[in-house]
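re: that chain from earlier
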Amino acid sequence: MLVLFGSVSNSVKVARVSIPARVKALFCRSSSTQTNAGRPGADVPTKPRTRPFSSQLHPTMIPPSETFLVNSAFNLKVFDEDNNFKNTNSSVSAPANIAQELTLAELASLSSKDRVECDKIIILLRHGEAFHNTFYREHTPSIDTDIERSVGLHQDCPRDPMLTGVGCGQALNISRAMDVYCNSSTKLIPDLVVTSPLRRATQTALMGLSRYHPMTSFKRIPWICHASVAEKARHLCDIMASPEELALEFPGIDYSLYKVMYETVNEQDLIDSPISAQENHTNLVRRAGNFLRWIKERDEHVIVVATHSLWLDAFKDYALNMPITPTVPYSPGEVRAIALKWS
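^ sequence. v structure.
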């Protein structure tokens, strides 16, 4: 039995979960723990932990988040008309799990036995800066949702853009981090790469995982395009190209699943009727839950996912049920890892 530790005002909540003992070191690393069951536990003294690597060694590394026990069904957090949070019962569900966020350095420092005790290790990449990001900066005078929405639907907004020079540099930073922490010495080797259909995510994955490139690597790990990890469809930059077009542009990536899931989007409908044409938040959360169920059924252990900021928020805040308040948004070109144990 594993005891999860977490502190709230110098006290600790304890929840007992059936997990092998060797994974205890992994799931007792965070400074605070929360369970959605809300069961109180005995106070246990905490011991300061020495980080094996400084989070300043690489710009894409941040301190770990928190550990949470998740039920198969959860409350969907949405905004009301006054931009306030409200909880609603949702039919959206995801597999019950224990999730621990780690940096690549922390993940690589674990023994291979500890990593094997995790059911899945997910390395999450946010794409590097793309041309729509610079377009927003140049045309959005202030942080205003309505202005940003109108800019994202402007006729000059780039469609499914590629990375800028800065974004390519961020992808190369990912490559350096992957070379340092994911290699034969650390025995942390990806078994599967999943990428969003949007070009900026695919380009980031190909540059950031050049050691495992689908056309040149001897390792021949599968690369799969999955529509469930695409960005929330709300702007013109989020309209995805056809699987046939992408297969010609990015050979070596398997687009067969994307062909089944692909739906055409009428660009003019998005401009004329953005409220009805844009993807709602419930569907974004549902896609995140569907992806979690999909990877649960697969045999691969270490899975790299190249995706987007809003999808990452939905995946962590809802599918993994990590609270919104302590969650630090992903920066462009940032890498984090999630260790999962199905409860």
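The chain has 13 helices and 14 strands.
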